[in-house]
């Protein structure tokens, strides 16, 4: 019974997160954030363009191949949400397995 409640809670959280990512993220401000603004003001913004991770999966929070900028941003947010949720779930399952292996 307890695992059913946990599963329902996780699925509800995922649904809310996906809804926010898909439908609200396209309306986020296009103005630069604090770090980007400082880099722009001090003239080193261009140095980060080809930095340590030049092949970002969603550069500028957009999904390539999608024509609509609103859907492109929303879908990129949804894919990122599912990816982070999946990684967190795997990490949690791994940590739970470690705890059970020690008798906890």
Mean pLDDT: 85
Shape: extended
Helix fraction bin:
55-70%
Tell me about the largest β-sheet. Answer: none
Number of strands: 0
Gyration radius from CA atoms, angstroms: 19 Å
What does this structure look like?
The protein has a domain at about 1-30 and about 60-100. Helix content is about 60%, strand content about 0%. The chain is mostly helical and about 100 residues long.
In a nutshell, what does this entry contain?
Helix content is 61%, strand content 0%. The chain has a domain at 2-31 and 61-101. The protein is mainly α and 104 residues long.
Tags for this model:
extended, 104 residues, mainly alpha
Topology:
Layout: H1 2-23, H2 34-41, H3 69-101
Helix pairs in contact: 1-3
């Amino acid at each position: 019974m307890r695992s059913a409640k946990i599963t329902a809670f996780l699925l509800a959280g995922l649904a809310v997160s996906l809804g926010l990512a898909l439908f609200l993220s396209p309306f986020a401000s296009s103005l630069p954030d604090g770090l980007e603004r400082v880099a722009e003001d001090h003239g080193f913004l261009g140095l980060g363009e080809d930095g340590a991770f030049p092949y970002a999966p969603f550069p500028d929070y957009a999904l390539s191949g999608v024509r609509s900028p609103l859907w492109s941003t929303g879908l990129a947010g949804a894919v990122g949400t599912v990816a982070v949720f999946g990684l967190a779930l795997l990490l949690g399952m791994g940590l739970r397995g470690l705890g059970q292996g020690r008798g906890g």
